């Protein structure tokens, strides 16, 4: 089973859009809210080398934020990433 993690915050419109895209694809994901758990922001930054949310990981691989996710989807590679174990 694929493991998808999204680091997000409650006031981030890009986080909402990223989750909506994943929801439309039927993807089950774990959401880590860095606004509710500030210590998780440091974890996110170490894993992704980025400070902004959302940060999305598929099977441990950082894919980036919302615009990166959209680019991957438009290129047709997202479905392959989500089905590749």
UniProtKB/TrEMBL annotation:
Gene3D superfamilies (UniProt xref): Glutaredoxin (3.40.30.10)
Superkingdom field: Bacteria
InterPro entries: GLR_AS, Glutaredoxin, Glutaredoxin_subgr, GRX_bact, Thioredoxin-like_sf
GO molecular function, one term: glutathione disulfide oxidoreductase activity
CDD domains reported for this sequence: GRX_GRXb_1_3_like (cd03418)
Matching SUPFAM superfamilies: Thioredoxin-like
Family named by the database record: Belongs to the glutaredoxin family.
Keywords, in A-Z order: Cytoplasm, Disulfide bond, Electron transport, Redox-active center, Transport
Stretches assigned to the Glutaredoxin domain: 4-63
Organism expressing this protein natively: Methylophaga muralis
GO biological process: one example: cell redox homeostasis
Protein name: Glutaredoxin
PROSITE patterns recorded: GLUTAREDOXIN_1, GLUTAREDOXIN_2
One Pfam short name: Glutaredoxin
Function of the protein: Has a glutathione-disulfide oxidoreductase activity in the presence of NADPH and glutathione reductase. Reduces low molecular weight disulfides and proteins.
